[in-house]
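From the methods appendix. Each design record in this collection lists the tokenized structure first, followed by the designed amino acid sequence. Records were kept in a plain field format so they could be parsed without special tools. The example shown here is representative of the layout used throughout.

RECORD:
FOLD TOKENS (342 positions):
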């Protein structure tokens, strides 16, 4: 018995799009290259024809014409294990991916925790393999942003740069205001010996959340006491270690502001091991409103960062930069979310 080969369906071409849209091939090309010198009616006809025919843009061919790759990078300058441990990075990546998908732009995940990795990835990006970079987690002394800027690569950072005068476009939650909200809440519960576990003090979030903590205690006539301050690195283990350190120094502490939900998970475990009841003996507040806050026992009172808005604003600012617009900064408000821990 002879088997007949199935007929492969021909992929639609730019000529098919032009025929269905009732325009010239040149008009279709101009729409695909950004729509310059094309009337709104013609652009809509072309886009409608693309949907009808199922035409898919040849990205390689378009990049040769436009000089652009048609893609962007999500660059995390942290060790790889941090990406898998900290739920905030995954939420941010998902939001950025969805926002770019609306523009038919793929997002490449790049992780560069060491200086060697950062140098290799910076060379790759500077060679034109992506059109822009969403930069996440930039510590003091991290050279990536400056190197990409010298290569004229559009960059938008998540979080304020440590050097405000750098001119780096960024999108951030108002960390200082969020910390102030949490400490005022703990004070409203009658707590007066309020300790804190800070984030890394070579990051803007670590610095601003500590500043917000100090602001409110000073306003309340409770000058911050260094024995009530310990530093973590946003990991669960560091939250536990810092809390044990605080309990050794100040066993009388009655509240704890932890600068991330993941660190707060570790803090809760350390307090439980020390026989402290939460919130009866120690009220605990976190920061982020990540999945870690809901998974905590008791559920964690925290400061909500608007991750969806942050990711969409990062994409909006990056696309504007790629289109030639000036850099900008966006600071978004936070929200206090009260649960059982405080």
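DESIGN:
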């Amino acid at each position: 018995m002879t088997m007949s080969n199935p007929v492969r369906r021909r992929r639609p071409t730019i000529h098919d799009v032009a025929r269905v849209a009732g325009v010239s091939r040149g008009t279709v090309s101009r729409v695909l290259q950004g729509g310059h010198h094309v009337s709104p009616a013609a652009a809509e006809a072309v886009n409608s024809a693309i949907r009808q025919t199922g035409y898919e843009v040849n990205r390689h061919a378009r990049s040769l014409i436009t000089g652009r790759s048609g893609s962007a990078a999500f660059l995390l300058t942290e060790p790889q294990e941090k990406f898998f441990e900290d739920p905030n990075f995954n939420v941010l990546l998902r939001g950025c991916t969805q926002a770019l998908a609306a523009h038919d732009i793929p997002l490449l995940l790049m992780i560069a925790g060491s200086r060697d990795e950062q140098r290799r990835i910076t060379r790759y990006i500077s060679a034109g393999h992506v059109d822009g970079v969403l930069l996440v987690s930039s510590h003091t002394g991290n050279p990536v942003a400056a190197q990409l800027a010298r290569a004229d690569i559009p960059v938008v950072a998540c979080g304020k740069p440590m050097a405000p005068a750098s001119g780096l476009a960024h999108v951030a939650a108002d960390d200082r205001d969020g910390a102030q909200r949490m400490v005022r809440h703990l004070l409203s519960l009658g707590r007066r010996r309020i300790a804190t576990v800070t984030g890394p003090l070579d990051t803007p979030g670590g610095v601003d959340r500590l500043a917000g903590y100090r602001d409110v205690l000073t306003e309340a006539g409770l000058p911050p006491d260094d024995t009530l301050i310990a530093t973590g690195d946003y990991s669960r283990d560091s939250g536990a270690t810092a809390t044990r350190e605080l309990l050794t120094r100040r066993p009388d502490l009655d509240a704890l502001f932890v600068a991330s939900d993941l660190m707060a998970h570790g803090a809760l475990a350390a307090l439980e091991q020390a026989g402290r009841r939460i919130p009866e003996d120690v009220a605990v507040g976190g920061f982020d409103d990540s999945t870690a806050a809901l998974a905590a026992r008791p559920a964690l009172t925290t400061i909500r960062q608007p991750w969806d808005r942050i990711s969409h604003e990062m994409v909006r600012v990056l696309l504007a930069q790629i289109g030639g617009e000036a850099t900008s900064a966006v600071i978004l408000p936070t929200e206090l979310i009260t649960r059982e821990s405080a």
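APPENDIX NOTE: The chain has a mean pLDDT of 87.
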